[in-house]
Amino acid sequence: MTDLKLPADPRQRRTGAEGDGAGDGARTRRGISWRTPLLVAGLFFLVYLTLSARRHAVNLSTGYDLGIFTQIVQSYARFSPPYSALKGPDYNALGDHFHPILALLAPAYKVFPSSYTLLVCQAALTAFSVVPLMRWAEEVRGRRFALWAGLSYGASWGLAELVSFDFHEVAFAVPLLALSLCAAGRGRWGAAVAWAVPLVLVKEDLGLTVAAIGLYVAWKGPRVTGLLLAVLGAGATALEMLVILPEFNPVGQFAYWPPETPDEPGLLAQAAGAFWPPVKWLTVFMIAAPTGFLALRSPLLLIALPTLAWRFTSPNPFHWGTDFHYSAVIMPIAFAAAVHAVAKGGIDARRLLPACAVGALTTCVTFFTHPLHELVTPQLWRETSQVRAADHLLERIPDGATVAASNQLAAQLADRATVSEVCLFPRSFPPREPAEWLIYDNADRSDPDCATGTALERTGGVAGYRLVEHREGISLLRRADR
Asked: Disordered: where is this region (predicted)?
């Protein structure tokens, strides 16, 4: 693999004038092609969209979260605050998480008013993040290294989890982080700062990631610029969590503070808890392994610390592992760090090849343990009798109706009806008046203590409603006074 070697022509070597990432082992390549990165990005766009769209088509998407985000973007498209009936009546979603960047999806939703619009946009945003990483990797070590970086990153488990579990606002963070960190690694400090600033509009915790980028810029580049960015990021997180989110939250506080306990552990015990249980160490291993552990050689990886810190100190076990979308923002950091490690020099082809092989092997293994493998499973492509029954019953609900639905059916209605959560998750607020329609799937175990499900299983009905039709364990009911 001669493409992994440095060029013999000294004119193609950098002199280090552009900053930390531009010295020693890196090189410039005039006219780096856009064609291959765009082709790889296009491939992953199709993969991501196929996975998420097919999951939605066979009713594997959920009200939490595709339904919620559909309602938010639908509100923006109507030029109203981002309300979500699934969270509660007239619930302003800016009291849940700070994500005004979602308003950018409103024009697309106005033209194509469907939950699929969100899935298309997420697939495009995530796939595009491949492009800056591949172009930088090609500058550093040529086309083969760029292909390894692009394919390993695009197929990484963190991105697979994002596109599999419906839609999330962090889809915007993935390309912004890739663009910012690739610029920082090259020593292009202005671009690094410019791409980092919009992250404060994606989610409240990402201001801390912006602060970390600012500290890196202050360390390796213009100090004042970096410190200003760090202050902006930290200040944005403080403003959002302490002022904006409580202002819009129905109970007047940030919704995700850890619950108070009577026996509060000491600071030392809390710090020790950040390193236990072992699943947290597995997550760290899984972040580094797809890069062949090259990321551990770059200080760019330190930018992932704020995200890991809040996750590992969280009392919610879902934040500790590799499931859901929480690691998606770490993937561009890890792979940018891997490219940066090679760009700094000191890694010849004999050491680089084994690292790339380890990364490729990890990607192949995680294909079978994370959601991309669903693309080759019959479940994603077969329309079962249960899916047909659900579609039939959903069609009986007219557009514009008020519906209380179980979690895995709510997303199917969010773009054409006012949908609330039939089981009333602990984090949602009940509607002011009963919905006109109620649809419940006995196979949906999202809330095992669902009062509606219990009533249907015990008595075959729900007080105040009459049964319209029952198929394949799915019950459709309508208010008796209608």
From this structure: 1-28
Give the β-pairing of 465-471 and 402-405.
unpaired
Question: Contact, 10 vs 331, CB < 8 A?
Answer: no
Enter the DSSP assignment of 27.
B
Query: Average of pLDDT values for 5-30?
Result: 41
Q: DSSP secondary-structure letter at 170?
A: G
Q: How many CB atoms lie within 10 A of CB 316?
A: 10
Q: Are residues 236 and 357 in the same domain?
A: yes
- On whether both 333 and 393 belong to a single domain, the answer is no
Domain with 391 in it:
385-479
How many other β-carbons are positioned within 10 Å of the β-carbon of residue 425? Answer: 16
Residue 7, domain member (yes or no): no
Of 376, 399, 417, the residue that ends a domain is 376
pTM, 2 dp: 0.92
CA angle 348, 350, 352 (to 5 degrees): 65
CB 333 within 8 A of CB 300: yes
CB 59 within 8 A of CB 409: yes
State pLDDT tens for residues 127-185. Answer: 999 999 999 999 999 999 999 999 999 999 999 999 999 999 999 999 999 999 999 99
Distance between CA atoms of 218 and 104, rounded to whole angstroms? 31
pLDDT in tens, 50-108: 999 999 999 999 999 999 999 999 999 999 999 999 999 999 999 999 999 999 999 99
Q: Do 252 and 357 fall within a single domain?
A: yes
Report the C-alpha gap between 448 and 130 in whole angstroms: 40
Cβ burial of 276 (10 Å; 0-12, 13-18, 19+) is: exposed
| Phi, psi dihedrals of residue 263, rounded to the nearest 5° | -105, 80
Are 434 and 334 in a shared domain? no
Strand order in the sheet with 402-405: 418-421, 402-405, 437-441, 474-479, 465-471
- Answer yes or no: do 315 and 412 share one domain: no
Query: Looking at the structure, do residues 59 and 147 belong to the same domain, yes or no?
Result: yes
Please name the residue that has the structure tokens 């969010």: 414
pLDDT digits (tens, 9 = 90+) for 276-299: 899 999 999 999 999 999 999 999
**Residue 331: pLDDT over 50:** yes
Task: Catalogue the long-range contacts made by 155-158 (C-beta closer than 8 Å, 24 or more residues apart).
Answer: 155/44, 155/363, 155/367, 155/372, 156/290, 156/331, 156/335, 156/363, 156/366, 157/286, 157/290, 157/322, 157/327, 157/366, 157/369, 157/370, 158/287, 158/322, 158/327, 158/328, 158/330, 158/331
Position 267 scores a pLDDT of: 66
For all residues of the chain together, what is the average pLDDT?
91
Angle, CA 19 vertex, CA 18 and CA 21 arms, to 5° = 105
> Taking the C-alpha atoms of 130, 133, 134 and 137 in order, what is their torsion angle to the nearest 10 degrees?
-160
Interhelix angle 157-164/35-57, rounded to 10 degrees, is 40
Residue 27 has a pLDDT of 44
